[in-house]
């Protein structure tokens, strides 16, 4: 992880930044999937947390080796979005930076499909299933998220992203096809 590239959304009067970030991140996911890349990580340097403010921000930072980032950026995954995204240069990571794990977090949100499955599985009516989910719901989610379509089921889902605590040393490992990892770090600056 010695280089990075910033992709910043340009303001658009027709689409909110969250929708554009979802489209950009979805395209990145497809590109990483098509390349079978496990050496490119992502971060959202301008992310905000909090129940009312949880947003990934308008900047997506890609981390990796210079060769991996170059190979990704020559692919046509940004076609159709180039006018909406300002693409920076591939730059070396500054010296003396901290490192963070950026991972996916999943929550039991008690959405309608879960309630219906629970009701069927336990042979109870929907109202009782809703009541059980309401009483066991987790605290409010404060992490930023990106709305994506699943490649396999075509269902829309929220991908919650947690930026771990800064640490002084990097941790090696691989990244999934969303650019996230449960243990590998990205440089944080």
From TrEMBL:
What name appears for this protein in its UniProt entry?
Type I-F CRISPR-associated endoribonuclease Cas6/Csy4
Q: Which organism is it from?
A: Salinicola acroporae
Q: Give the classification, highest ranks.
A: Bacteria, Pseudomonadati, Pseudomonadota, Gammaproteobacteria, Oceanospirillales
Enumerate the Pfam families for this protein: Cas_Csy4 (PF09618)
Instruction: Give the InterPro entries listed for this entry.
Output: CRISPR-assoc_prot_Csy4 (IPR013396), CRISPR-Cas6/Csy4_sf (IPR042564)
């Amino acid at each position: 992880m010695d280089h990075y590239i910033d992709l910043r959304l340009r303001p658009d009067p027709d689409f909110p930044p969250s929708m554009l970030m979802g489209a950009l991140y979805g395209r990145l996911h497809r590109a990483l999937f098509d390349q079978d890349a496990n050496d490119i990580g992502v971060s959202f340097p301008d992310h905000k947390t909090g129940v009312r403010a949880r947003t990934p921000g308008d900047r997506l930072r890609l981390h990796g080796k210079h060769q991996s980032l170059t190979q990704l950026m020559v692919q046509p995954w940004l076609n159709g979005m180039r006018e909406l995204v300002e693409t920076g240069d591939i730059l070396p990571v500054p010296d003396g930076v901290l490192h963070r794990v950026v991972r996916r977090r999943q929550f039991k949100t008690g959405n309608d499909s879960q309630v219906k499955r629970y009701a069927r599985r336990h042979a109870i009516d929907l109202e009782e299933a809703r009541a059980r989910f309401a009483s066991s719901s987790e605290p409010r989610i404060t992490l930023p998220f990106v709305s994506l379509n699943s490649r396999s089921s075509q269902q829309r889902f929220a991908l919650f992203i947690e930026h771990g605590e800064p640490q002084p040393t990097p941790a090696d490992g691989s990244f999934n096809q969303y650019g996230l990892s449960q243990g590998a770090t990205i440089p944080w600056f």
